[in-house]
Amino acid sequence: MIEYTYTNHIKLSDSIRNIVESNKILSPSKEICVSSTYTQLSEISASALETYFQCPLKYFFNYVLKLKDPISSDIEMLDIGNILHDLAYKYYLRKDRLTLDIHSFCHTTIHQIIENDEKLQQHINNPILINLIAEAERLITHLRNLDANSKFMPTYFEKAFGSNRSFPALQLTDNVSLKGKVDRIDIFEDYFRIIDYKSGNADATLAELYYGKKLQLFLYGLAIANATGKKLSGTFYLPIKNVLEKADNNENIYKLIGFYTDDSDLASAYDINIQTNLKSDYVNMSLKKDGTLSKKSDKVLSPAEIDRLLQYSKNISIQALNEICLGIFKASPLKFSNIQNACTYCPYLSLCSKHSNDICFRDVRKVNKDSFLGDENE
Ligand code: SF4
After folding, report:
1. Is the pLDDT score of 37 beyond 70?
2. Which of 36, 83, 148, 252 has the highest CB neighbour number within 10 Å of its CB?
3. Is there an atom of ligand 1 within 6 Å of 333 CB?
4. Which of 243, 237, 238, 267 is nearest to 254 (CA)?
5. Which helix (H) or strand (E) holds 157?
6. For residues 186 and 47, what is the distance between their CA atoms, to the nearest angstrom?
């Protein structure tokens, strides 16, 4: 049984506050109205919106009741991901990054990160952390090669947008805007690309976007397009690994995975060797023999389709916000397959498990480019 801590929330109705404080389990079948005036929300994050789409009740537990997992004292994947993320950020702060000695930089920086973290300090001799330096060198070597083989210029790092930030918030409704922090924004002429360092499942499908499970890449794209006046050319995850995994068939495990514009000139800006090799070592894209982009993947999109997806991600975010502000929090998890649904790894499973018969799963149907975006000329 997971233990939860409870943080007061000023908008909780007395009845819900009583249920939580007396450790009663909420009935997941119940549609809970927290307060018809739950409208003090002024900013929301992409991950909060994605959580609402996964399951509104999960959003309620996490963002309204603020029930949090106790912090584990063990080294977890999240810790490793955070260390490598921090390392990449520090690498881009270095003006001498094109020439610095990668081994020495990784060794020194990883030790500094560990020494400055109370929890990590206790694990300084843990083999996972010791082996991490080798992984760190592989990541930084890849980043250096990625930049050397691209015309896109790494320009902004950990760039926050929102109220009181240098980039403005993305206004969703009259009262609520989107806030966030983009790991990396690269610029090439009138275009930009977004790169999000991602541990865990570093992929996004059109179905996940359609059902709101993965909105971040496009919501961030819209926010940065508004802030910079440039066009989104692609929006990607860069998988952050936590062990020295072997890549299949000598594939580069750090290849960018995401959605991008169907434009072979931009493809050459992503990877200056793609016209020769027909397949990129740095981005999950390939060319046909005639030099045009292979469209086998649903992730190759026309500029009009990119625009539609940017607008779609905003529109469904507004729908979710309207429901959140009305206090609609049903136990309605997304069901992606017979073996995987939003409950599978949900930290609140123990609260809901006694009421599993009352949970109303939302089935996910197959989504492809035609069924989602249709004919762009329509
Ligand atoms: S266990 Fe399932 S129903 Fe309960 S909050 Fe999590 S996702 Fe929702």
Report:
1. no
2. 83
3. yes
4. 238
5. strand 153-161
6. 22
DSSP assigned state of 287: B
**Quick one: tokens of 285?**
């894209």
Q: How many other C-beta atoms lie within 10 A of the C-beta of residue 200?
A: 12
Q: How far is CA 205 from the centre of its chain?
A: 13
Q: How far apart are the first and last CA of the chain?
A: 53
Ligand 1, atom 1: nearest CA belongs to which residue? 349
> Mean pLDDT over residues 162-171, rounded?
92
Amino acid symbol at 1: M
Whole-number Cα distances in Å, 361 to 152, 353, 358: 43, 14, 9
Total number of domains in the chain: 1
| Ligand 1 binding pocket includes 55 (Cβ within 6 Å) | yes
pTM value surpassing 0.85? yes
* Sign of the torsion angle spanned by Cα atoms 103, 109, 112, 118: negative
310-320: per-residue pLDDT in tens? Answer: 999 999 999 99
In this structure, which residue's CA is closest to atom 5 in ligand 1?
58
Domain extent, residue 77, equals: 1-378
Q: What residue owns the CA closest to ligand 1's atom 4?
A: 352
Mutate to test the pocket of ligand 1, among 349, 355, 360 (most ligand atoms within 8 A of CB): 349
